[in-house]
């Protein structure tokens, strides 16, 4: 019989690449991880790893076992969900990961609603970049997390996760209100020579801004780098440049900022481990945050 905990270590090794990374994710020592993987090899009756000096790689048998491990993990999540469904009332921790703009706009009302409906839930929020959410879910540091991508730069889904659509936002061109009108079919044409405020290189927001600008026929001239949209909008209001800002971040722009809607859209999803959709706590969170997103959309619809 294969030990599920050891199987998870092997799966994480395939995902993370090194025993040291697996050890860090599980707060084990590398030696302890190696011992557990050796025990898994004995259980499997076949070598799962090829060791060359300090490096390890999966054998064909190891790759087959990792491939089938997702089925095992999904079945365990479904079993956990089924047990939770027959319990009386929701209780225990619900660990939530969300990016900063969602924490400020959607989560407060979501947490209030969940606390009122299910007082036994211990709601725990971690502000987290969406890029880090899949690993945090896989390592069981989170139960649910918010992911996003953009229609112009879609992100490939993680095969270990399920997700449901939550929100599709307009992306705005944010510029100082003293700037030209930008009333063209492509408003970016008026800011091709402007200074830009962009996210850090390597982030999804940085990639999206480069893509949008290059599609409009120019490469942005970067003056400032900032990853928090509150900071971005403050810099725009101070006349320091222009930027792209999604609707959640643009709900209450500071004085001195003008927002021009673009055709680009940011898409947010609620993600959880595959098989966990029927877990009552996960389902309750999805329902509550969808209600919050619906209210936000209604309040910020054109003409509202």
Automatic annotation (TrEMBL):
UniProt keywords, alphabetically: DNA-binding, Transcription, Transcription regulation
MF GO annotations: DNA binding; DNA-binding transcription factor activity
Superkingdom of source: Bacteria
GO cellular component entries: protein-DNA complex
CDD domains per UniProt: PBP2_LTTR_like_6
Pfam (any one): HTH_1
Domain HTH lysR-type: 2-59
Matching InterPro entries: LysR_HTH_N, LysR_subst-bd, WH-like_DNA-bd_sf, WH_DNA-bd_sf
Protein family according to the UniProt entry: Belongs to the LysR transcriptional regulatory family.
Name of the protein described by the UniProt record: DNA-binding transcriptional LysR family regulator
UniProt organism field: Micromonospora pisi
Organism taxonomic ancestry: Bacteria, Bacillati, Actinomycetota, Actinomycetes, Micromonosporales
């Amino acid at each position: 019989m294969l030990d599920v905990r050891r199987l998870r270590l092997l799966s994480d090794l395939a995902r993370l690449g090194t025993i040291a990374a697996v050890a860090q994710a599980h707060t084990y020592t590398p030696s302890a991880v190696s011992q557990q993987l050796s025990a898994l090899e004995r259980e499997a009756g076949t070598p799962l790893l090829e060791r060359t000096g300090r490096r390890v790689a999966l054998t064909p048998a190891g790759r087959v076992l990792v491939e089938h491990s997702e089925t095992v993990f999904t079945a365990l999540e479904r079993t956990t969900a089924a047990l939770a469904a027959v319990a009386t009332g929701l209780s225990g921790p619900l660990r939530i990961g969300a990016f900063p703009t969602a924490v400020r706009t959607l989560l407060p009302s979501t947490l209030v609603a969940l606390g009122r409906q299910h007082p036994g839930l211990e709601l725990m929020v971690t502000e987290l970049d969406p890029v880090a959410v899949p690993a945090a879910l896989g390592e069981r540091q989170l139960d649910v997390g918010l992911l996003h991508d953009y229609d112009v730069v879609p992100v490939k889904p993680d095969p270990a996760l399920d997700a449901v659509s939550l929100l599709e936002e307009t992306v705005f061109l944010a510029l100082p209100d003293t700037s030209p009108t930008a009333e063209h079919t492509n408003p970016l044409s008026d800011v091709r020579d402007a200074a830009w405020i962009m996210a850090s290189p390597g982030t999804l927001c940085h990639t999206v801004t480069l893509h949008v600008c290059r599609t409009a026929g120019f490469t942005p001239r970067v003056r400032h780098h900032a990853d928090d949209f509150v900071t971005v909008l403050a810099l725009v209001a101070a006349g320091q440049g222009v930027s792209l800002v999604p609707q959640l971040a643009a709900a209450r722009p500071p004085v001195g900022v003008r927002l021009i809607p673009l055709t680009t859209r940011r898409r947010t999803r609620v993600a959880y481990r595959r098989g966990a959709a029927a877990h009552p706590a996960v389902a309750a969170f999805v329902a509550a945050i969808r209600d919050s997103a619906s209210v936000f959309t209604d309040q910020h619809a054109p003409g509202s």
